[in-house]
Design a protein that fits this description.
Blueprint lengths: L1 H22 L5 H8 L4 H11 L10 H27 L2 H8 L2 H12 L6 H17 L1
Length: about 140
Amino acid sequence: MWIVYAVLSAVFASLTSILAKIGLNGVNSHLATAIRTVVVLLFSWGMVFIAGAQKGISSLSRQNIVFLVLSGIATGASWLFYYRALQIGDVSKVVAIDKSSLVITIVLAAILLKEPFTVKTLIGTVLMAAGIFVLM
């Protein structure tokens, strides 16, 4: 069962990056971090005020808010599945699967964000996926 939790952790971790990328359009990174990382709320909002980024609050669009909130939910889900997988599985195997989020993120970035997917990207992605399976 730990493998399911580890895979779900990787999927949600990859969604975090994709959703944050969409939500960050025209938003200060400190403000975006505060919105999507409720767990570290005090630190994030502290950085917002230190950087003077609070002035950007009024310029947030509905899309910014929706995708930053979704990114925060994906982050929380990833952490929940990751810690559950760690609790019942071998750390080396859980971490190997969790790091497959890089492969998933590359694929999702190509599909959802239309980022370039070159032959070099394909080879690197295949090699990373192979390495993850070797580690498992």
